[in-house]
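Summary for the funding panel

The consortium committed to producing paired sequence-structure records for every protein in the target list. Below we show the first two records in order, beginning with the earlier of the two.
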Amino acid sequence: EARPAATQASQSADKTPLTPRERELLRRVQELEERLKAVESKVGSASGEAGSPAQTEGPDTSTAQASANNASTSAQSTPSAAPEQQNKAEEEKKKWGKYTPNLGFKVANTEHGDLSISIYTYVRYLNQNALSPNYINGFGRVVPVVQRQDMQLQKLQFKFLGWVMDPKFTYYLWAWTSNPTMGQPAQVVLAGHVDYNFSKYFTFGGGIYSLPGTRSVEGNFPFWLSVDTRLISDEFFRPSYTTGINAKGDITDRLRYQAMLANNTSQLGVSALQLDNGFNTFSGALVWEVPDFGIAWGDFDDHKKLAYRLGAHFSRSHETQQSQPGTETIENTQIRLGDGTIIFTPNIFGPGIAVNALDWKMTCVDAGLKYRGFSLDGEYYWRWLNNFTGPGTAGLPEIRNHGFQLQASAMAIPKTLQVYTGGSMVLGNLGGGYDTRVGINWFPFKNKVVRWNSEGLLLYRSPVGYTSVPYNVGSTGFVFHTNLEMAF
């Protein structure tokens, strides 16, 4: 019975190409046939010479026969999609490397380490023609506002990440450039950090990180509702990227921490010779969230159960005029007053008065909710500037600012179309401002690798801005920008 079954499987294989698994089954069937022939020949020969007792000396032919039948049956049950499976297998052989969202493509994987390469970039059309051409700052001075209309390859970032020698010893190295800031000190940035993961409770490292002073600098870029732009309150209060030592980990399944001791609040575009020798910048965060909340704003993942987070942040630093970046460097976070004036500007508080150094403190709390494609996020900030040093600063009072932001979003079409809105305000002595915005995100491939974003902003006396974001200091009026973003 095994031989006809094998013949039938062979005929079926002649009609349709077999997969490697089916070819292996067929080989086993043929091997069993050969064994059965040998057994039958031996049994037949022994029967002719010594009678039936010799039949008990051979192997159990019923077991071999059953195995052959099972194998041939499996071969006979070849699905009709066998050609498609074989073509798919052959196509897979032509590919190499593994892709992981937000970690890019793995290009090396050895016993001594691995390497993945990730790329982020976007093209932006920006129209600021509807902005007022100037504004009056908190000291009664008329300040011009730049009005732009252009298209830029706004940012290009390469990330190289993986581990070396020990899977717990990881590296994250990156390079970026921002075309609108051509010629500025930090137009091209090379940076990164190395870390050792002792356990889920403690990871320690050194290098350039974003200080975890607000939610947007916890390491969730670029997964914001807008493309590479924050609301003005977040931009006004947050710290930035600098060099230092960093520790993070889980305290419980829902509570995690991050803490950093660093050079200053923003080192991009600042040389080591411009830094003071205090190494006294600190920033920390405690976050309570459900395990599947995720790092992104918005509920692209369509949580079926309510997901939430609560966060608290605190930062402090002693800042000097020399340690602050230039006004147009990318990701700059100059310490500004509520009207947008840089506090180290000479004579703003009166003739002969100049702030050369100060103490900066900032804290904030945030909360977020996600449920069935909807999200709601809020954050409140407080900032204090005091202990001024410099000519004529002895009588300067403490400067306080506070502010907030709110953002809401909904997936109008799951995994495809997202609408959002947001607003923020900066308050306190010596000026303030606000912004509101509405936007739409289209994900053509139903993932976050590619999106087309369009957004309209209404601004009033923005206290912050530079060439890498769609608003300038003092902006009042309407701004439109649209972006094609790729992040893999």
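The next record, for a separate protein in the list, is shown here:
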Amino acid sequence: MKYELKRIAIWPAVKISFLVHLILGFVVGIFYALFFALLMSLPASMGDADLAALSAFSGALVVFLPFIVSISMAVFNTIFIVIGLVIFNFFTRIAGGLEFELAPLAETAPVAVARPMAPPLPTAAPPSPTEAPTAPHSPFSPPINTGEEPPQAPSL
């Protein structure tokens, strides 16, 4: 099946782009914060008193830098995505859309996965309600209650 991509809706792409870049920016901001905190702690560990105050600033930087990077990355990258989508939609209107072909799942070859087959478990048939359960009876085992009265010994 052939399809043609003629237009990309801007608002759904903006929402997805903003959320993805917000999360990605937070992760990148954590790495930036840890890197700058490490760099700012080096002069304080060498005993330089003037630069020791700078290491106090690194604590605030570690806390706020992930949020600053995530918001700025989300805003700026979303603006670039919007500009790119406007340009894409403009050129697809003039030159035509992008053609791509999709194959239905039935035409694709199935991937064979070799798994050992377990033999089916034997199932025991439940006893019918009319049959009394039969168990081996020894002289030392208690009598089986079948609902009948046991035979009476003859009285003398």
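Regarding this second record: The helical segments are 10-45, 49-95. The CA atoms of residues 32 and 65 lie 7 Å apart.
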